[in-house]
Amino acid sequence: MSAFAPADPSAPVTLALSKGRIFEETMPLLAEAGITATEDPEKSRKLILPTSDPGVRIIIVRASDVPTYVQYGAADLGVAGKDVLLEHAAQHPGGLYQPVDLRIGKCRLCVAVPQGFDYASAVRQGARLRVATKYVQAAREHFAAKGVHVDLIKLYGSMELAPLIGLADVIVDLVSTGGTLRANNLVAVEDIMDISSRLVVNQAALKTRRHRLQPLIDAFARASLAMPA
Known about the structure:
By secondary structure, this protein is of the alpha/beta class. Helices cover about 30% and strands about 30% of the residues. A six-stranded mixed β-sheet has the order 2-3-1-4-11-5. A five-stranded mixed β-sheet has the order 8-7-9-6-10. α5 links the parallel β7 (about 130-135) and β8. The two termini are about 35 Å apart. The mean pLDDT is about 90.
């Protein structure tokens, strides 16, 4: 799939963000470029937010949609978690440039099971597991590397419920503090990968609008260096 640049090179630079943690943790990084959002997406119903720089605007989209908006050129840049980018790349390879690990939105993609579940026996060579997850590609690759056959059940929320009511044996989900797992008598038994958020850039836009995008990319890169490793 090719990357598409915006039709109008003079249009404002568009940054795609999702609400919540990503938005909040991106704002200090954007401030490195001297840019601030003039409205709070948690208080405004607007999906296109102006900034202190008239040449830059922010669009508010669902986290899983950020790579799509950037890849098709509806946004020049975006911020998305590594988990989202891996799932997107499995369906839409190519077209996205990932120049900076922003070191924000940190968590882990883990396998979790009900307390008392014998995970070691369940993943013996040739075994079959029912796995509930939003992250189908990452889960498939993880268990394939272990030689474990899986029946993948894609869910979009309340992942912890699946093994409690017999829908799945285990889940693959993002874990930050582990509080939700503990509240539902689940335990993380295996880390698949560390997750952080990345700056993604439309490749065609970078070629045609480099003079406008590169300063922003550089500002994000400088700010990310100050974040804890």
